Amino acid sequence: MARVQLTINGEARQLELDPRQSLLDVLRETLGLTGTKKGCNQGACGACTVLIDGKRVVSCLTLAVMHDGAQVATIEGLAKDAKLHPLQAAFIEHDGLQCGYCTPGQIMSGLGCIAEGHARSAAQIRFWMSGNICRCGAYPGIVAAIADAAAKS
Questions:
Q1: C-beta separation of 4 from 30 below 8 A
Q2: How many degrees, rounded to 5, is the angle at CA 38 between CA 127 and CA 118?
Q3: pTM (two decimals)
Q4: Cβ-contact 70, 53 below 8 angstroms
């Protein structure tokens, strides 16, 4: 077992973890934060995207112990005082979801895309979001939502 400190959605957590546990499994199984989805569990779909110290990371491919002391942001930490984050609201406004399974990873990756300055055009958004797969094909709404949120930030 390994002792790891993570700040998750602003809350400091001291955890005793199996050093082989992925961050995704720690979030879902240990902490009960099931908003982050397990899609392919191979880093190919982006459903498990979270922000670690502000950078996009597919949480299925990273060991939790590698991020001792890190700030982790998940979809559960976005809404404040029952008010949706502007990107969450934009996803609803622009129909950026259908089944919703990929949506948490799309939103977290979208936040990273905006923060990195890669949301200046639809083409740029499509390129920088290409690691996030939507099996329902809601891409036009996803791109529109990210562009809208980027324009308002």
A1: no
A2: 20
A3: 0.96
A4: yes
